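Loading example: each entry is read as two labelled lines plus one structure line.
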Amino acid sequence: MSTEGVIYRVAGPVVTAVGISPKMYDVVHVGDEQLMGEVIKIVGDYSIIQVYEDTSGIKPGEPVTNTGRPLAVELGPGLLTSVYDGIQRPLPVLRDKMGDFIYRGVAAPGLDHEKKWDFTPVAKVGDEVAAGQVIGTVQEGPMVHKIMVPLDIKSGKIDSIKSGSFTVDETVAVIDGKEVCMMQYWPVRNPRPVAEKYQPDVPLVTGLRVLDTMFPLAKGGAAAIPGAFGTGKTVTQQSLAKYSDAEIVVYIGCGERGNEMTEVLTEFPELVDPRTGESLMKRTVLIANTSNMPVAAREASVYTGMTIAEYFRDMGYNVSLMADSTSRWAEAMREISSRLEEMPGEEGYPAYLAGRLSEFYERACRARTLCGEDGSISVIGAVSPPGGDLSEPVTQNTLRIVRVFWALDTKLRERRHFPTINWLTSYTMYDKQLVDWYKTNVADDFPTLRAWAMQILQKESELQEVVQMVGSDSLPDEQKITLEVAKMIREIYLQQNAYHPVDCYCPLPRQYMMLSLIKKYSDLAEKALAAGAQVDKIAYLPVRTRFNQAKYEENTDAELQAVSEDMDKQFAELGA
Amino acid sequence: MADITKEYKTISQIAGPLIFVKKTEPVSYKEIVNIRLSDGSMRRGEVLDSSDDIVVVQVFEGTTGIDRDASVRFLGETMKMPVSKDMLGRVLSGAGDPLDGGAKIVPEQELDIVGAAINPWARDSPSDFIQTGISTIDGMNTLVRGQKLPIFSASGLPHNEMALQIARQAKVRGENEEFAVVFIAMGITNEEKQMFMKEFERTGALKNAVVFLNLADDPAVERIVTPRLGLTTAEYMAFELGMQVLVIMTDITNYCEALRQVGAAREEVPGRRGYPGYMYTDLAQLYERAGRIKGKKGSITQIPILSMPGGDITHPIPDLSGYITEGQIVLSMDLHRNGIYPPVNVSSSLSRLMGGGTGKGKTREDHKGVSDQLYASYAEGKDLRGLVAIVGKDSLSAKDRKLLDFADIFEDRIVRQGLDEDRSIEETLDLAWEIFTELDLDQLTRIDRKYIEAYLPKKE
């Protein structure tokens, strides 16, 4: 089998080569500068290659070499805190090698092969071990990095195992004569196997009231955030990355803005994780393939991120994976497909768009891993529909797969209601599965309270239609109160300031307390009305201003307690 | 290496801006091409697709007058922009040739015009407040150094006046650094050009500017190169010479039309509305050249101007731009018709990097609250306008009437300002506090109470 060939044609990121007889998705090196590429189509003797780097100046006749291996990532100690491009080249290393701009033809391994890690064995000589089983651990920052038997060794007996300081490619154990080091390769387009997938029934707690209470995502589930530009997809994604209770965060900046990645890169290291007391960055892997970086690498970036997420899931961790934005990924597919002159499907997207999206989201799961522990990957994919039109192919194909839909709304953005998650159009299909968890872990009446709040909001939208026609004066008193209560739910509860030091994270007990207080106000108002109090008096009780501000106070819970007492007092004064 | 002295007379097909050349030696992708017409005149082009059998060349100056006898020479290198310190004050064509009668640029360096992507790891976060003197921008959609903030306009709106006002007034306060403007015109009319040039000369801005002019009657394909030449120059001045560069690009819509034209000529599968599927990536390669780099003094701030076809913000051009740029300033026909300049529709405008450039130590501690309050109250007031049209003002509550009036006062006092009115950020914020007195205290829900006490003027 020949591995050396020559370029026949160059058109943008797509290069055609002859004479390499590759397998599909083999990685090849293209041209005198050895640019990295991947075979995506084979026609007779012609191999069509998508190249991960700029192809300007490359010409027919230059050499092409086939590595014979599919695109794979390096997995092992050193992944955490890393910042990669779409094909797992560490950006800090690239900067050291070629300066502030990314030029091409520079290779850099995903892991540091020089650094030594302290390996502590947990298996001993003579143990029978199988693929995916933990044989030792490495302390990596605040996390315990478990070293697992590589998946190509089905099972075997440990001949020898060492303890001490090693680089990632030094042998730490020998299993049935095969040497095992701490690093493994995995081809990014293949899902890593698990022992058994479960039904998710634990929520991913995010500290965002509108998500945790109204539209929770289960650990191991998938959610989509579609929204026109400027509605806060990225801010929501970043809040989730910062505050959700996953142990590992994989953040993929896929075809997005450079300055936004800078924001993530400067903020994450500064954020202190309340559980470990160390910076959030120490349990994060970032993938930054900005919009002006090569489009083929953008296409690969989501797979690179997902494979890294799966690797940590396999150790038994809960991983949350943010992909911002899956639309850019879809566009990369479209761009490459159109260069291949493939027959387009809807709006120029390739016909395999739906298939690729579902394959990707299906890699989210809660599972018993091969090492026998429970792990999960929760996927949160941002979608950027052109013109905010949700009927476009990427949004529609995504919604067919995911079970949680957080709809971001331009109208809410315009009135600076953040997060701009629309409470009428968003949905979660995990609510039934999660009821028990909320009852046990928050409060017995929490699900009822949630249903009540949703009902009020629904009623408000109906009443608003009437108000638009005839003005609010002509509504009966009870309905005016309903509008006021809905306003409280919106302004006090649903609005949350992601940049405020206190309000940015709202623990579940506090969420319960706030919502109960609104319910209390509603009940008291109803009673007061029945006792003959005026609507205007009820609506403008001074306690409301205090309630509005309470979530920003440093000692929020005490302040909420005070609000509750004020409420009792002021309603009593109304004579109710 | 291709023999660069070799001329080919093997053109097999000419279509739109493209020529197809057969039987060449290996030619690289993006290589520069000289085409000699039968009358002896020269054209320039670039290789779009290269294979052993056929090479597709995109001709910058258009294919009018080219026949199959024209001879083609491949230059063996990709397109470069000669750059030098002495470029300030120069007026160049859309292809980079001098238009001001001056000498050719003596290059200190020749830079690839495609430009490499800035490594995200090397980027510095933009956080220096740029005061434009326009309240709706400074107060509510703050511009910072290294940002790309486009103006979304429509035909018939004064976006050019506004861009000029920004170029004239923009400054980072308290600093006296080298400042330069790169002005990139793509397909603008001769009249617009006159207006810009006259203004540059009147204010003396030209001596700190490099101007690239591709006019409406210049070849459309040249428009694809013009912004790249300009941005390459900007990068040189910012990251080699350490200058603070403001890049104004007008009109992005014309640029996108040119992209579509080339795409159609190549018979590519089109994306939305006939624009090429790679338009997002292509635009990103322009916009993403804005920014700052760690350890370097200079910066590139971009103000691209685009006219939304039919005023439609969901049209692919504003839509894709909005997904790449860090916010947008949207101009409104309604405000313009009401005689309000600058007609900024704040509700749909946004600056994503505002948070990093505002607040204590940058602008003023109350900035964020004031901005949020203006947005919220104005939005409520605007909603009420619709209601009043149906039920009349009398049926509003006293509080609602105040909000309704607030919307009018806001447009009149904050949005409206003179062409030469340069408001400092303090003036803008104080103005906002003045109009807050029109509202009741309990309607100011977005501002911290301590700022209300400190800044709200006491009513007599």
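The two ends of chain A are 90 Å apart (CA to CA).
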